[in-house]
Amino acid sequence: MEKGHGRIETRRIWCSTELKGYIDFPCHGQVVQVERLTTNLKGQKSRYEMAFGITSLNPEKATPEKLLQINRGQWSIENSLHYVRDVTFDEDRCRIRTKSAPRLMATLRNLALSLLNLTNHSNIAKALRLYAAKPHLTLRLVGL
Known about the structure:
Layout lengths: L1 E3 L2 E10 L13 E11 L6 E9 L8 H25 L12 H18 L5 H10 L1 H7 L3
Antiparallel strand pairs: 1-2, 2-3, 3-4
């Protein structure tokens, strides 16, 4: 159970190894079912979700508690990545929409983010301003 952002969220998980050998999925260790019930602090507006997954982790490496942590952590990664792409790169307002240009631009943005993350920049917007103002640092960053 977790309280925050004006709501209470209850998550439950069921894990099983019983399907091992029955499903055609490479390297599966467990199947999981995650149930989420979200209610606002006034007790209204309930939302119920159920998700299913397959993991290569066996029960010894990933207990149900650990799998819930992994599941919850994935959303923080997704949210932080999309936030940077939407806010810092203003990706939603990009007018590039034809042929392979959108995929190419997304690849270049991902490359820039990866390089900045590898060089331990915690503030991506600040780092982008630095490299835009000093192109010689950008060339050094990519090894030229």
